[in-house]
Amino acid sequence: METIRINGGRKLGGEIDIQGSKNAALPILAACVLVDGVSVIHNCPDLTDVSAAAEILCHLGCTVTRQGHTLTVDSRNISCYNIPTRLMSRMRSSIVFLGSILSRTGKAELCAPGGCEIGLRPIDLHLSALRSMGVAIDESQGTLYCYINDSIRSNVITLSFPSVGATENIMLAAVFAKGTTTILNAAREPEIGDLAAFLNRCGCKVKVSGGGTILIEGVKKAHSVEHTVIPDRIVTLTYMAATAAAGGDVLLKKTQPQHFLTVNHIFEKAGCNVNCTNNSVRITRNGRLRCVRDIRTMPYPGFPTDAQAPVMAMLCLAKGTSVMVENIFESRFKHVCELAKMGAKIKIEDKVALIDGVEALYGANVNAIDLRAGGSLAVAGVAAQGTTVIGSVHHIDRGYENIVECLRAIGADAERSDMDERFPG
Ligand code: UD1
């Protein structure tokens, strides 16, 4: 089992290119199922979650090849409508294949999805929306048996919460429906816009209007397409948090600051300088960080829940008490125990985290309990005095491409190695 070892305490400096967005690439790969042709997807990050999506595509009958960051998916010969449990259990977002398989084949069979264990992650919104579009769904022993009698019906669907996955599933299910489907209170994340852009490029008719309304006019067919995935805003924010925590001056290139403009002020409030261009962000921090008292995770354009753990790691070193409220997921504070092993002082009261800033964090043996917990430990590790050894690296590999190389490129002393004998397991 591999670990990441970081000798922390040096200021960071340098530049890195930001990878393509995992959360945009995954639904786009699911959307390839709709295409009666070949999809060429550029800027597709090399991550285990992306490999898992590619395996699902192969199982369905697609041919998938990768050249660098370009994935080519030939989905002319889709022959299958089920996803086996072993593939579904690898990641939660495999559920977005439901909408596209239904659209393409008229039926689908899959079990409940896997992924990060961050509280209850139900799929009731996905299922009720699909049922309202005429999809019959039987659940038996953890497997969903879904089929369409005639064709998918367009409808007006109002989501009680702007779920990202449910919005994507409805979009994918609606592209070939008769008439126009309207999603109200749809998710507004940039990854939704990227999925719509992909769908429009292959001949679908999707209109994303401000305020969370999406209109999908049914078409007969989706044709071959070439598309470039947007940059990963959460990865950008993680390296910003690392720079803020360790101090220094880092330029993050090939990113899109307009996707995280509302988060920049958190770094500024904490005492960093943030300078954006159209496609880069430079962050510098010299003096001690200051606490930030009012961070609440919210659907986009609010503060993203996926950045909560990395930013919390940075605030562990801020002067004063910071307050973070997690409104999106239950149990998304699992990283707190690990940060505590490094000397962090954090109190959790229900969905509120009170982070009492300490003068220094200290290297320790810690576990990446989930993907973003892993991001937070990398942030803490570069800032901590001494050596941090992070275990359960497979969670980090789900979302951060070449994290060790990226950290090294901005001046951190990091390496990947086989299981460290000091690591408790
Ligand atoms: C996506 C992202 C994930 C991010 C999350 C919130 C991908 C691959 N994953 O996850 O990184 O943290 O958005 O920005 O894009 N909910 C229900 N019923 C449902 C669906 C969701 O109650 O049917 C609840 C969830 O339990 C959660 C909240 O809605 O509390 C947000 O979930 P959702 O927006 O669906 O997140 P995901 O699409 O799973």
In short:
With 425 residues, this protein is α+β, with helices and mostly antiparallel strands. It has 14 helices and 23 strands.
Shape: elongated
Give the terminus-to-terminus CA distance.
10 Å
Strand content: 25-35%
* Low-pLDDT segments: 115-120
Rounded to the nearest angstrom, the radius of gyration is 21 Å
Q: How many DSSP E strands?
A: 23
- Ligand identities: uridine-diphosphate-N-acetylglucosamine
- Mean pLDDT across all amino acids: 94
* SS field, number of helical segments: 14
List the strand order in the largest sheet. Answer: 21-22-1-23
Give the helix proportion (percent range). 25-40%
What structural category characterises the helix and strand content? alpha+beta
Reported for the largest beta sheet, the result is: 4 strands, mixed
